[in-house]
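Quarterly update from the structural biology core.
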Amino acid sequence: MGLHLVLAIGGGAGRLSQSAIVLAITKEGRYSETITKWLTAARERLDPKTGLLPHTASLPDGRRVGVTRATSQGIILRLLPDIDPEFAKAQYELFRTRFLTMFAGAPCVLEYPSGVSGSGDVDSGPLIFGRSLSGTVMMIAVAQIYGDQSLANAITQAGETVGLPWTSSGQKNQAPAHK
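Predicted structure, tokenized:
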């Protein structure tokens, strides 16, 4: 890649880590050529199954990519508008198409793109029928960033319903998860 922005994660380059670094140097304001090169290289190495930035890519050149995952994609989608708003919007729309689903009438996010199965890990936590609770919660903020308030509200409302809220003495409470 020649940009020296690659961080090794389990023998591969993490796009999430790269996105954070690129955002940091975007804010610095002096590295526009490096950012342009990174964006070009990133677009050339999208996950062929989804068209999205992959979860990981091989070292040293990033040519072999891993499948896109919701937990990393949620953070990437949070950072990307500050790097390249048009690319970010296109990535968001693809993400919605491939990862957003319904479960028991509530919108939620698959950890892996529709049609791909996999296991949860330390980042995603346990998956419930392939659905990622952490990815779904992150989607509230991501949807708001992209002006998708109806999706953010629907996920929030589902969370409120599952939490079994009640008000007592003017204070909102939620059902305890465990005692």
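Strands lie at 8-9, 12-14, 56-58, 100-103, 106-109, 127-128, 131-132, 166-168, 171-173.
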